[in-house]
Design a protein that fits this description.
Layout lengths: L7 H19 L17 H11 L6 H15 L6 H17 L2 H26 L3 H83 L3 H29 L17 H12 L4 E7 L10 H21 L3 E9 L5 E8 L13 H12 L3 E8 L5 E9 L8 H4 L2
Parallel strand pairs: 1-2
Antiparallel strand pairs: 2-3, 3-5, 4-5
Helix pairs in contact: 1-2, 1-4, 2-3, 2-4, 3-4, 4-5, 4-6, 5-6, 6-7, 6-9, 6-10, 8-9, 9-10
Amino acid sequence: MTLPRPHRVDLLIAVGGLAVGLLMWSYGLHTQTDRLITARWATLIPLVAMASMATLRRSLPQTALIVGTVALVADQFTYGTLVTALMFTDLVYAAVVYGPPSAARRIPYTTGLITIGVTIGFLVWWQNAAALVIGLITGMLSFLPAVTGAVVRNHRQAADAARLRAEQTALLAEMDRSQAVVAERARMARELHDMVANHLSAIAIHSTAALSLDEPRTTRQALTVIRENSVEGLAEMRRLIGLLRDSSGDMEPAAAPTLDGLDALVAQAATNGRSSGLTFSIDDTRAGSDAALPAPVGLAAYRIVQESLTNALKHAGPGEVRVDLGRRTDGALTVGVTSALGGQPGPRAPGSGAGLVGMRERVALLDGEFEAGPVTSDGGRKEWRVRAVLPVGTNDKEPSAWYG
């Protein structure tokens, strides 16, 4: 088996201990004066063995402690050196700090029992108080380093646990921040799309008509509509910028649109869609006023109608576009927009599909119901219908999510 490479600190301890031990041995500084083995060179064997085990104190702590214990016992039969005993205490400490958890729990109890056993054994043997000194020395060489190592290990484990908790907390905070950024970007995308897409679609349709038709009167009408939508779109963009600005800026956010503005919205759509053969109507059968609706519900309904009218301008065939508003018996607000399904004879504006996604997200934030797709009317005509049911009761969503 190949021994692991010693740690640099362990090598310094081993070399330093061996050098000091050799220096004390050369001057004849021993811990005992009369022992079984009288050869002075025999003292060097436990010293060298203990220094060798110091190089393994971190990589093989249990092996180092076992061999070190044997070396310490052998040192008692020679004249001995103080360095050998001190290096043994370091092996006990390292075995607790760097050893496996089971050894770290077992060694302090084992050394404590050894200390008590040695003290009692010498008291019975010597029958005098000098045995207490032997017990004290035994405790200082074994039990005290083990307890110190246990305290250090516990502090390190507590520090590691605290560091891990801090890293996990930072990770969770980063995940929350990322989710908040994604949610905010989604809200901004919905708001930008709903506010500006209607005007840009009208501009695209009428600019195409102005370019394709060589009639001064038609061109002038198209340019008039383009200018109106450009001005209104710019106003909507300014409102969005105001919403995003700091409150200390030079622009205060405008109030969010409500269902009271649907008549103007439908009238604008009628102006934009006249050249495409589209007519627009609104049927509001709600009981009570718009003030009875929570602001998030009113805003979501307004945006759904706005986006549906924009889609009708882009894709609906000639005919009527109907907007229906109502209240169910449970108080939920119902929104429906129906238009003719078919190709548009005039110029069309491209669509991205983001409108349906945005409407579905708005309804989902309010725990409502949403459906959009082709249907067959009572007269057998193919139509495209958007329908949403928006609960008006208590909603547990975050208020910031409602206004996306």
